[in-house]
Description:
two-stranded antiparallel sheet, 29 helices
Amino acid sequence: MNTNTQTSETSEVVIDVAKSSIRDLWTKEDYWAIWLGFLILIFGMLIFFPNPPEDMNQKISHANAIMQSESDTAPFKTIGWYKAADAKLKLKANSVGFGKKLKSYVATPHGWKTNPLDSFMMNQKTADAKNDAARPAYETAKSNTGDLLRMAQLKEAAAKSVGFKNEKLNTETTDAISAWLSAKNKASKLKKKTQNKPYNQLFPLAGLCILFILLFGIGYKIMGKNFTKFAKGFGFVFVLAITSYMLSAQATMKAYGIGYAAWAIAIGLLISNTIGTPNWVKEAVQTEYYIKTGLVLLGAEILFSKILSIGVPGIFVAWVVTPIVLISTYWFGQKIIKIPSKTLNMTISADMSVCGVSAAIATASACRAKKEELTLAVGLSLVFTSIMMIVMPAFIKATGMPYILGGAWMGGTIDATGAVAAAGAFLSEEALYTAATIKMIQNVLIGVIAFCVAFYWCARVECAPGQRVSAMEIWHRFPKFVLGFIGASIIFSTIYGSLGSDVGYTLVDQGVIRGLTKYLRGWFFCLAFVSIGLATNFRELKEYFKGGKPLILYFCGQSFNLIFTLTMAYIMFYLVFPEITARI
């Protein structure tokens, strides 16, 4: 074969690959996840950015001036500083205009205690009864908060009278302020229980179902599939998602940390393993389509400014510990436990070490794990997450561990972002901030891990002896939705930075994200978990449980993760960078 013939054939291959890649833009669900995710994000910006809270900039400037003045006066955060900071936190784009109404349209079912109907509707009489019942506790907490505020003001005045040069008075003042803040937060939560208003969420939920059918169905149709069959089955999947949210909103379930994900998978499994998933529903059982779209939205929540706010210690805990734990757990599974399936081993290792379900989905796509293996990894993650989010805060309190250290420990080890926030809230605001920020930093690794796994699988696992690694094969294996995840993070981090932290908090964090995309992401994840359950049969999972190897792998890997993360967190936050810890 001459050189010209070879060149011609190579050109034809390149052209064919280019055509195939362009066609993928509207025929592959990874790309549709990106398009849908960005469509939602753009819609959110169009709604919230032009409608900021009234006098937002003036109120921010006034609060910042007070905070700066208080910082220049005292060596600690004063009462005035906290009150000014609270004034800024109350500026939320999702609390004004159409943004306020939009949040109610995409919200999940309400909390309830004994009557499930309270999750969907409440009349004025019931709302008034709930408010009256909650008011005495709130009034007591409010009175206690007032007493503690006056005590803190007296302490602060005493410390100020000597120019804040008496360390004992300064310490007493900060302790008194902390006690006031704690009581204030408690009173704030109780106040919300006295502000019940009548609602009927049945119609918004029906509208949301129709919206989702159109949102996912149009892409489904363009990908060459049957829109009518998808729409017919989606209603069933959506009702199960609503039921999952409703059960997780029950007071006892919330207390024990049994969230919507566990209920969604459990309900789906119950159906698929008893009566069986109806054939007319299967067209709407699209696990990856839903969750990939949700993961693109998750990217917008990972803001670089928040990552940098906790500094080098948090980055070390998230970006040094995580890959070491992942590689060690995978090696342990292959060499010591000898798990037969490398894809199962890798999926469990990524699920446990990075950030639970999100990392499991990306990794499973990169190494092309079977759906049964993904289901098993997700199931293990949910069980251990429910246990850890309750046990870890109790252990931290019982041992007297510093709450910032405890928050860093939980942020690096508990899989789900929501569970991390809930566990941190059990301890303190500082613990919540530290835990949530470290988990956010860790989430950044989803894309990196997916690429590395795709490369490793091409280069070592599935590469024949003497075969060169194909860049095109790595590209085909790499989950493309990760590009949307990374792109959303970069774009929204840039927007947040250009607006400034205060305006960014009001319009991005408390607007686009917490007013729209975070709710929709939760719905998409819930639909995916329901689909996992509906698509899984215990008979298919049985062979993977032989000898209990997956459970042993997860337990041993998580044990190593707990020890290593705690050690690294202590070294970084208390030995190497104590000045950063003091600022949290």
